[in-house]
Specification:
Layout (H helix, E strand, L loop, with lengths): L3 H12 L4 H6 L10 H21 L5 H5 L7 H10 L19 H14 L7 E7 L2 H13 L8 H16 L4 E2 L6 E6 L4 E6 L2 E9 L33 H13 L3 E6 L7 E15 L8 H11 L4 E9 L1 H8 L7 E9 L9 H9 L2 E6 L12 E15 L2 E8 L5 H6 L5 E2 L2 H5 L3 E11 L7
Parallel strand pairs: 1-2, 1-3, 7-14
Antiparallel strand pairs: 3-4, 5-7, 5-8, 6-7, 9-12, 9-14, 10-11, 10-13, 11-12
Helix pairs in contact: 3-5, 6-8, 9-10
Length: 451
């Protein structure tokens, strides 16, 4: 049987001076549990033995073996010297990798990378690289010339070997392909190492215990954040927001470069958010610290906001959760308490409130985009379910309504009717124009069904 390895490898290494890694990598898809340097070294040992047998039988010349006398193959060098004491090892860089894959070079890179991340706290990482195109091209050409069909790419070889050295230098961190805390990119074209700290996502729920606070920071409409007379040179429409109260302590503790607040829907500025609170995710970009003391931060938020905003933290999460809370779970059921003012006293009809409650319970409401948000939302009709609706008679011209509905229902418009844009609506059913005076979200449920 003609040996595939023998007939492919011999012509290849006679022609090209390659390091153990670059030789072994051409067979990287064969066998597991070996490094490419081990594969390459094994092949060189095999060829060196073949050479020695031939040499003893006086069948071969010295040329063949000189290609085995590489810097990283001492066995070859020593063996050849038995027969040719004056022979010298080849000191040229590897034809393919230009010695980018030599252990001493990888170690230098790994040490530099460690210095760059010394201020970062992380437990997982991933290595990436950019290779000069001529290195990639020359390997491609060699593969097609010598019919080498079991190879892996030089980049994955480099990334893995560097990852192994980094794992030794940073024993508390491991390689993670899916969601690494830190990504190292070794740019071998410009000789640079780039460090990227992936964002930190914190999942929690907030309560807003006072009215008049927007969920997100609002830049001044006139100056767009620069500062002007209109905004008293603060650049903001409102001096405080749930976003600022909640993100700032996290941002400072994590030592990030920026932060984002993702809420699962939002309540009106003048509505409180009570009960167990509304889910949110805080995203911190380029964090240096990942082990955050949630209980201290929770206290800070309550203190900084003077008790207006309180949070409970569920823990760290992923970007997937951001998408989930912003889309799917914003339709989750909500319970509201609305204090409703009536334009005039109720008609003298004892069963009226009971009838209206029943009509709204388990009803579908059609709402055309309310006038008050029409300037920023598309004009369309949305349908939302109301699953329960109870009314308490507080005074002649005031009622308290408790309702549970699908997320996204405009409660103020359900009560007022919004000039007929919401159907059915409370004012029409009652026969008395009514408006919401105070609104509280008293629960945000975990699904679209209020359970
Ligand atoms: Zn090489
Ligand atoms: Zn302004």
């Amino acid at each position: 049987m003609e040996s595939y390895l023998f007939t492919t490898v011999l012509p290849f290494i006679e022609k090209h001076h390659v390091c153990n890694s670059c030789l072994g990598r051409q067979f990287g898809n064969l066998l597991t549990g070996l490094s490419n340097a081990e594969r390459g070294s094994a092949l060189k040992i095999f060829l060196a033995m073949e050479w020695e047998i031939s040499h003893r039988q006086a069948k071969t010349d010295r040329e063949t073996i000189s290609s085995l006398m590489s810097k990283d193959f001492l066995v070859g060098e020593q063996s050849v010297r038995r027969y040719f004491p004056e022979a010298e090892a080849n000191s040229l860089p590897c034809t393919i990798c230009q010695d980018f894959l030599s252990i001493p070079f990888l170690e230098i890179l790994a040490r530099e990378a460690c210095d760059l991340v010394s201020e970062y706290e992380f437990s997982t990482f991933l290595v990436g690289s950019q290779f000069p195109p001529n290195v990639i091209d020359s390997e491609d050409i060699i593969r097609s010339t010598f019919n080498l069909e079991y190879g892996e790419s030089i980049k994955s070889d480099f990334n893995r070997e560097l990852g192994k050295i980094l794992s030794i230098l940073i024993p508390e961190a491991t390689v993670d392909f899916k969601a690494p805390d830190i990504v190292f990119t070794f740019d071998l074209i410009h000789n640079e190492i780039d460090i990227k700290s992936n964002p930190l996502f914190i999942l929690g729920r907030y309560k807003k215990l006072e009215r008049g606070i927007p969920q997100s920071k609002w830049f001044c409409r006139k100056c767009r954040g620069v500062g002007c007379n209109h905004c008293n040179f603060t650049g903001k429409m409102y001096q405080e927001s749930v976003e600022e109260y909640t993100t700032t302590p996290f941002f400072e503790a994590a030592k990030g470069i920026s932060s984002k607040f993702h809420g699962s829907g939002r309540e009106d500025i003048d509505a409180r958010m009570l009960g167990t609170g509304r889910p949110f995710v805080i995203e911190i970009s380029e964090p240096k610290i990942r082990n955050l003391d949630f209980s201290t931060i929770t206290k800070q938020i309550a203190e900084n906001s003077k008790g207006k905003v309180e949070v409970t933290i569920e823990g760290l999460t992923t970007r997937t959760k951001v998408r989930e809370i912003k889309t799917r779970s914003s339709r989750n059921a909500k319970a509201y308490r609305a204090v409703v003012s009536l334009e005039k006293s109720l008609p003298d009809d004892h069963s009226l409130l009971e009838r209206v409650s029943e009509e709204f319970t388990n009803s579908l409401i059609q709402q055309r985009t309310p006038i008050r948000v029409a300037h920023r939302r598309a004009d369309k009709i949305r349908t939302r379910k109301v699953s329960s609706f109870t009314i308490e008679n507080v005074a002649k011209d005031e009622l308290t309504v408790y309702l549970v509905c699908e997320g996204g229902l405009y409660v103020k418009e359900l009560i007022s009717g919004d000039q007929g844009r919401t159907q059915p609506n409370f004012s029409e059913k009652l026969g008395v124009p009514a408006v919401v005076k105070e609104l509280d979200v008293i629960e945000v449920f975990k699904s679209t069904d209020p359970i």
